[in-house]
Amino acid sequence: MAQSEDMTRCIDLCMSCYRTCLGTAMNHCLETGGKHVEPKHFRLMIACAEMCRTAAHFMLINTPHHRHTCAECAEICSECAEDCERIGGMDECVAMCRSCAQSCRAMAA
């Protein structure tokens, strides 16, 4: 069974969100310090990156379980977007997480 156009787009968004969250956490947040490296925020960003990678992986291997990983990914991405917005200075991360959450919600349905 071939991937749908929506699934292919979701995989791409998940991988972009993975790169954005991990890159932002390891570069911007670590170098900025302060609120950016508070354990709760930093763990959330790393969890978001990993969940995005996992959701993409489950869609790539074409298992019906992708619905569960996508549902969790949407939840974590939404939470990460809110927290990055609260701290500020991470507009790219906020936008990426929101796009990924929206796409994953559709895949989880």
Automatic annotation (TrEMBL):
Upper lineage ranks? Bacteria, Pseudomonadati, Pseudomonadota, Alphaproteobacteria, Hyphomicrobiales
Q: What is this protein called?
A: Four-helix bundle copper-binding protein
**Gene3D superfamilies per record:** 1.20.1270.360
What the entry lists under CDD domains is as follows:
DUF326
Organism field:
Bradyrhizobium diversitatis
